[in-house]
Specification:
This protein is of the alpha/beta class. The chain is built from 8 helices and 12 strands. The chain has a 6-stranded mixed sheet with strand order 6-9-10-3-11-12, sandwiched between helices.
Amino acid sequence: MRPLLEIRDLHVATEGTEILRGVNLSVQAGEIHALMGPNGAGKSTLAGSLMGHPAYTVTSGSILLGGEDVTDWATDVRSKAGLFLAFQYPESIEGVSVTQFLRQAMAARTTDDVSVLEVRVLMTEWMERLGMDSSFASRHLNQGFSGGEKKRNEILQMALLKPLVAVLDETDSGLDIDALRVVGRGVHAVRDERPELGVLAITHYQRLLDELVPDVVHLLVDGRIVQSGGAELAKQVEIDGYEAWR
């Protein structure tokens, strides 16, 4: 079966320094993969490279989405094709409401005209499922949001944009255990609706994986995936750290 996301021998540099040194990884439909690693291992470089961030230069290797090579595609084109990134630190946009933002994003994703009413109906349904207050829709995007509200908003975007693959870049940063559970429940709610969704969760910690329950765990150390395994691998890292793989 063709993977939803396939990373082939990916080498990436930034400011002339090689960060990723031959990463291989594939996510099949319906799978949750976790990518763990110490600070400086290249986790966020991988997330940025997947979305075509201009700070990162792919020097060799390729990124395939649904079997198509997207390595040289612009960020917005990758997004329209079904790649979604939940940011570690989502940006605030004053003057743009959550509803306005999602309407524009949905229209870009589908190339169809999306009415305000349609967006509001879908938002209301999903906000209820994610435990979000109805006033959330009219607030300015991430303006004054708590950490947990920002993450709920990312999950809301993921639900409405219907990507093929969702990349969660350290979405657990700064969250308490209750907010982590919100993220975990939100991801599972989206997957209940769309079981074929592929997820790549990038994290430092086991605690997010307790909520997500990954099918595969990968360890990224010094720009390479040094081991892959089941959920027990994350528990081993939690106990022993990364020294054994350096």
